[in-house]
Amino acid sequence: MKPIWIIDDDRSIRWVFEKALARENIAFNTFASAPDALAALETSVPQVVVSDIRMPGGSGLQLLETIRAQYPNLPVIIMTAYSDLESAVAAFQGGAFEYLPKPFDVDHAIDLIRRAMDESQRQDEVTELPEEAPEILGQAPAMQEVFRAIGRLAQSQATVLINGESGTGKELVARALHRHSQRANKPFIAINTASIPKDLLESELFGHERGAFTGAQAMRRGRFEQAEGGTLFLDEIGDMPPDLQTRLLRVLSDGHFYRVGGHQPMHANVRVITATHQDLEKRVKEGLFREDLFHRLNVIRLRLPPLRERREDIPLLVRHFLKKCAHDLGVESKRLTDDAIKYLASRDWPGNVRQLENVCHWITVMAPGVTVDTKGLPPELREEAGDAEGGDDWVAVLEREAESRLRRGETGILDDFSRKFERAMILRALAHTGGRRIEASQLLGMGRNTLTRKVQELGIEEDVAKEKS
């Protein structure tokens, strides 16, 4: 194992690290200045660098810049007695693994060094080939159905209604339908009808003539005219006001519309794709959406599955979003451990793919190191899991695991689950009682002899001994 380098002009700080690292049997070298460390770097490379930020002869930030240029995977921990915002920002922007303000807890500092050592070892082991991501990602059966539908619709001019919860990627699908159609070389215009005030939506869609209303100082082309020859995507169509529903129906029926304040009919050569997260049939029954417009829009319907119905796509999406965020920010891409990936796959994601992308952006910006475990995930995500642990969340996880195994065609699933369940319960009960079997058997609701037999049958004597120790 390569040594840890401690760089600080303060002799007492170096002494504290020397004693603590020696106690932990971690090899180390100490330096009183950045030039001394840079000179040593010409002949050897450490496992981790811990450097003060303000030292005579060269700052820790300058040292960080030099190390990152030569050894981009070498973790550098920056420490300083000047815990100001500028120093912290500069350290992280420079690629520091973590920022350690003085005075620090020695145990915390050693724990941080161990995390950096683990990161350094993973960097030595992991290599990744670049992948070219398709426009929409998904290997789950539900997404394959969407892909097949897009393929079938490639040569069609049919109106399409996309159903899906918020954040599932409805606009991505609309763009894909346009890109693979005969209108691909014409404009794709998107508008969210729920985000525009009712009084402005008509003008936004159909345009207006000069003087049509107060403030209309010039003629304006609406989205239908802007999309001429191409595709107009109307998102959240379920929220469209009734009077505009009537105008939209007229355009879809005869292909003509009028600008606001205009008297000359305009012809619309536009393919309309709509989307909504709402149940339009229900809104029709409630009198909130025109039935004739619904039938005009509902020529071809595509349903986008929520992320909780395509959990097998989460690892693929996470890798894609982490690479995309890193590329956009000009930083090194983060990687998640298997446990972190499994953790993310167990969440329900009410915000769907958009929420997952936001989490990946947070990880790219905020998580220390390049390899991120569950501790490096956003705190609110871990708090949600903590809140759920007291309920039936474990049942949902069990159901998903069962579904995954059944899909793979595995057999003997119930017996395997039962053995693992009994092992876990018995081990936890014995740990809780300090190995006292009578008390553990009472808590579990079984006889002592049954407990003893289970311990033997499940081969957990050694595990029980570990729990007792």
Q: Which CATH architecture of the largest domain?
A: 3-Layer(aba) Sandwich
Q: Indicate the structural class.
A: alpha/beta
- What fraction, in percent, of the residue positions are helical? 40-55%
Helix count, DSSP H or I runs of 4 or more residues: 21
- Give the overall shape, derived from the CA principal axes: flat
The beta-strand count equals 14
Name of the CATH superfamily of the largest domain: P-loop containing nucleotide triphosphate hydrolases
Q: What is the count of structural domains? A: 4
Largest sheet: 5 strands, parallel
At the fold tier of CATH, the topology name of the largest domain is Rossmann fold
Provide mean pLDDT, rounded.
84
Computed Rg? 31 Å
CATH class bucket of the largest domain: Alpha Beta
